[in-house]
Amino acid sequence: PKKHLSVMETNFLFCQPLGESHTEIIELFNPVALTLKCTWTGGLNPLPNITGYWRKDGDELENSRVTLQLVNKQYDLTRDEENLGNYSCVFGNEAKVDFILEVPQVGDVRDKPIVSYVGDYAVIFCKIQESKPMPVSWNWYKLNGTDKVSELLADWLLQIHENRNTKLLVNNLREADSGWYYCEAVYAISTAISRVELKVISFWEPLKPFLVILVEVILLVAAILLYERSQSQKTCPAENNGSDESSSMRQRKV
Amino acid sequence: MTDHKPKAESRSDEAKGQDKAWGWVLVAALFISTSLVFGLMRSLGVFFVEFVHYFEESAQAISWISSTGLAAQQFFSPLGAALCNAYDTRAVVMTGGFLAGLGLILASQATCLVHLYLTMGVISGLGWGLIFTPMVATVMANFTQRRTLALGVAFSSIGISSFAFNPLFQLLVEIYTWRGALLILGALSLNIVACGALVRPQKRVKVKQKTDSEGRTSCAAMLQRVSSYLELPLLLERPYLTYTAAITLINVGYFVPYFHLVAHSRQVGFSEYQSAFVMSAAGATDILGRVASGWFADLGHFRLIHLLSLWTTLAGTFIILLPVSSLSGSYAALMVISLLYGFCSGALTSLVFAVVPLIVGVKRMMGGLGLLQLIESGAGLLGTPLSGFLKDVTGNYMASFMVAGSFPILGTLTLATLPHYFSCTEPSTFQRCAHDDKDKNLHSELEQISSSPSDANLGGAR
């Protein structure tokens, strides 16, 4: 089970997820001081005391290991935290709660590449959900190999930022414009990043299947006409009367 | 239709067998053409999402593309029929296929929305209008005994192909964007040209054409000829008018569940997935209904017009029951009614066109179909806004479905005013025109399903 908590101005957070395995997602926009608190009832046969500790991004945090007493039939483990990351509180080896502290994700991420043609234009979108606060600013950049290329102010590119939306308009596309484009929503605490792939293809690409089908149609029509010619030669004598009926469709009573 | 229709005595059994087989080849051609016309139209939604993004226009502005296409298809249907009467069915369908493909290919280069209206809307729509009516008439003219089944099988393509096209178009858009995908769609549509080539040419037409044009050149004669190509005199005949009125009424309710069933189930509280699944399930029984009703009708136990009345009444009833069934909040009840509704609406679709030659005679069926398409379509376009309006006024879909469902029932009552409706056998003639003694043969043939297939070819029995 996941829970999204949007924290804006609060500087204290108190959550008590119960159960054995649980993930709490906490979205942060501004630097805040958080207190993460975990509670565990100790399973079927709770021991009087167990060891509890914290992990960040999978690694145990130094000096976080403490011995927990069973108080009011539950163990409590707390930690003050102000950095983003994936945190887990672990009770012995038996139970844990995951906290994910992150900036809001850029919404509506396109998992499929945007395709466009050489010479045409393409529009790449990024947006933050309406329910979330506006980012301080937006950035666009492109990955060239492994290097960030921020020369996105070149004249064929146009960045339009509208509060929670941003779009990158790439005019006069060249095949070299293909690649991953990154948009960054900048918040006070960190930046949220999303990426969109742009594929620039030449018009020759769809022309290939087009020509294949065209040839298929031409061959088919030719085959039908040839077949008909061979048939009509075979049945020529029988056709004298037959055509009489063709006029029936048109029934001229003029 | 085709001039390969033999007199029974002039052809060997083998040739007859070949001709019957050719009928099924034409069914396959109709199957492919309808899927490339209506199945494609139904699946264009994938593109509209992309257009909204690319052109940054409202969804409503974008949806005018398909409205223009559908309107053009229906508006040009009588033109398609008239051109077939005047020239050659094969040439008309092949031209239609070419235009349908051309429209989509040009649309792939659109730089503004107007380009899309003109290409996908007008050019492709004109092409689609030249395809459907002539192909349906061609298939019907090639069958007497299994005509409804043939149509049912061919029409089942619309449902089947939209199941296949949706993911296919999605894939194409992802790989090539909407531009490349439209280009490929255009190429796929050109396959209709091949379907049209399967229609055998009418050689006598040319000859007749000459004598016609030699004889008369005056303006009045031209008008008269155009009107006869369009089969406009049909509009003065009571049976045809009654039938068209009935189908128009049926059409008012026919499309409403397509547009509002999902919204209704969402409103009643079912999940998005559950609601979409109700619609897909109804779509599946619709496919089944088309084939099953075609098969059942061709057993010949009942008159087609009676079966049409039956399926229409049932479809109307189930449309009314759709919101009633979900009153209790039972998903199972809604599902059962949707399945039944899908089946009945599919069943009536196969019959609507198969009845036309019985009303106007095989010879005028082409024009009759074209005009029917034009007239009934108006009602189809009217029904959905009407039920949307009722929803806005009352706040839920109860009244919408009630009204939508009562229109097909009203249509059945209109059908009952057809001459000889209550006769248990197909009347010898529906129309008051003098030239239909051939149709007498046709109608009696249709009754005697077990009779020898030798002169089963419509019109050819002259």
From TrEMBL, chain A:
Highest rank taxon of the organism: Eukaryota
Name of one Pfam family that matches: Ig_3
UniProt-annotated stretches for the region Disordered: 235-254
Tagged with keyword rRNA-binding: no
Species assigned in the record: Echeneis naucrates
UniProt keyword annotation of Glycoprotein present: yes
GO molecular function: cell adhesion molecule binding
Transmembrane segments: 209-227
Chief place of localization: membrane
Keywords from the named record: Disulfide bond, Glycoprotein, Immunoglobulin domain, Membrane, Transmembrane, Transmembrane helix
Designated name of the protein: Embigin
InterPro entries assigned: Cell_adhesion_signaling (IPR051275), Ig-like_dom (IPR007110), Ig-like_dom_sf (IPR036179), Ig-like_fold (IPR013783), Ig_sub (IPR003599)
TrEMBL record, chain B:
Residue ranges constituting the Major facilitator superfamily (MFS) profile domain according to the UniProt record: 23-423
Membrane spanning stretches: 21-41, 61-84, 91-110, 116-137, 149-169, 175-199, 240-261, 273-292, 304-325, 331-359, 371-390, 396-422
Superkingdom of origin organism: Eukaryota
Location of this chain's protein in the cell: Cell membrane; Golgi apparatus membrane
Alphabetical keyword list: Cell membrane, Golgi apparatus, Membrane, Symport, Transmembrane, Transmembrane helix, Transport
Chief location category: membrane
A GO cellular-component term linked to this record: plasma membrane
MF annotations from Gene Ontology: monocarboxylic acid transmembrane transporter activity; symporter activity
Pfam families: MFS_1
Membrane topology (UniProt): Multi-pass membrane protein
InterPro entries associated with the record: MFS, MFS_dom, MFS_MCT_13, MFS_trans_sf, Proton-linked_MCT
Family: Belongs to the major facilitator superfamily. Monocarboxylate porter (TC 2.A.1.13) family.
Functional note: Proton-linked monocarboxylate transporter. May catalyze the transport of monocarboxylates across the plasma membrane.
Full protein name: Monocarboxylate transporter 13
